[in-house]
Design a protein that fits this description.
By secondary structure, this protein is mainly alpha-helical. The chain is built from 5 helices and no strands. The two termini are 55 Å apart.
């Protein structure tokens, strides 16, 4: 082998080495891009959920500040909306309201829904409120960062 052949072999080995390094860098870059995208999606979902909770908290605050109504139909509507908003916000956001107005445990609420002796519209209302709370719980779990 001549000196020129050795130079060509070294050049080929250097090119192969550079290609391997470039592949490794590209792989790391792709992994970082995927992680950044996952974090961005999780943050966007969390922000969207917070905006929904903010709107619900604002509406609940308005209803509570009114202090009721003289018309019994409006009063019932306000009470129903208040309970739905409390269910949406959950015990983490409004613990005192949750404790005062949702006096039953999760199991007791589910048993109430299953009890055929209760009026259907009440069972439906409780089931809907439980669904709201369960969906929010699932969303929080879905958007929480994976365990390390």
């Amino acid at each position: 082998m001549t000196f020129g052949d050795w130079i060509q072999v070294v050049a080929v080995l250097a090119a192969v080495g550079a290609s391997l390094v470039a592949l490794r860098i590209a792989s790391k870059d792709r992994q970082n891009a995927i992680k950044i995208a996952e974090d961005d999606r999780r943050n966007a979902a969390s922000q969207a959920r917070l905006l929904v909770e903010l709107e619900a908290a604002k509406r609940l605050s308005i209803l509570e500040a009114r202090g009721g109504h003289t018309d019994p139909v409006v009063r019932k509507d306000m009470g129903a909306e208040t309970l739905a908003l409390i269910a949406l916000l959950g015990p983490d956001r409004v613990p005192n309201m949750w404790q005062r107005r949702v006096t039953k445990t999760d199991k007791e609420l589910r048993d109430f829904v299953a009890d055929d002796s209760k009026e259907q519209f009440l069972r439906d209302a409780v089931e809907a409120e439980r669904a709201v709370h369960d969906i929010l719980r699932d969303l929080k779990h879905l958007n929480s960062p994976p365990a390390a």
